[in-house]
Amino acid sequence: MAAAQRIVIENGAIATVDADDTEYASGHVVLAGNRIESVGAGKAPEGLENVVRRIDASGHLVTPGLINTHHHFYQWITRGLATDHNLFDWLVALYPVWARIDEPMVRAAAQGSLAMMARGGVTTAMDHHYVFPHGSGDLSGAIIGAARDMGVRFTLARGSMDRSEKDGGLPPDFAVETLDGALAATEETVRQHHDSSFDAMTQVAVAPCSPFSVSTELLRDGAQLARRLGVRLHTHGSETVEEEKFCHELFGMGPTDYFESTGWLGEDVWMAHCVHMNDSDIAAFARTRTGVAHCPSSNARLAAGIARVPDMLAAGVPVGLGVDGTASNESGE
Asked: Which segments constitute the Amidohydrolase-related domain (predicted)?
């Protein structure tokens, strides 16, 4: 087997972001193939073989690649619309527009979103895509292809909606899938695109959209599908006070209790936003190791509130950062 090609980065300030927050004022990073082989102070070790590139990082900060834990790429094409709306009003205003997207639009939006993130240092990204209009083409394939072309490690959170206006939900009737159709399409996407290997560049998660756009059956059956296929689960949770009210009125309980009743708490689950969490909610997330994608720019843009991130971290809840849809933070970064 041929020796791995090496890239050596030297003379930069190194922030390792390891468990001890180790930093080097001037250090090196050695890459061997697709592995970080060594990180340390000063120059790289002498005698390294097969070095194909040396980078002088003087005056620069070297960090691990950033991980974006929540995004909606397709919203790139509706930036600047409904700018004075809270979340529910914003969704109602934009659902009819989003329900007319097609494969070329989604591919272009994914390319723009991915390029913006790559410029900002994101090397691992996800896209929560949940709008699949009839006859719109292979939207999942378009998104995954754009990520592959960009060279980003990527998870497609294959979303779905089946609770429309006629069922008490927010999306218009023509913008949703059927329960069976959503589950079948999600399973097909996993089987076609998910790579479970350690070096995977493309993975798929099961991701019904939210309590106000998804039936209880789709949440429950979606969780069972994900665990049968061995993939992760993602959705929106506890984003606004309106969502809290919606869940109490429709289900007789708050979002966290509702998610737990449908199998949606666990170490294989991560949820976007989680702004309106009480002490009991945070304890449940910590107990089950349910993750949170914190989206501060979007939370501010849509007046959702300020998430209790310090309390979550103190309780042991895994928390990552998310861009959220470009249309709800207006920059995509």
From this structure: 61-332
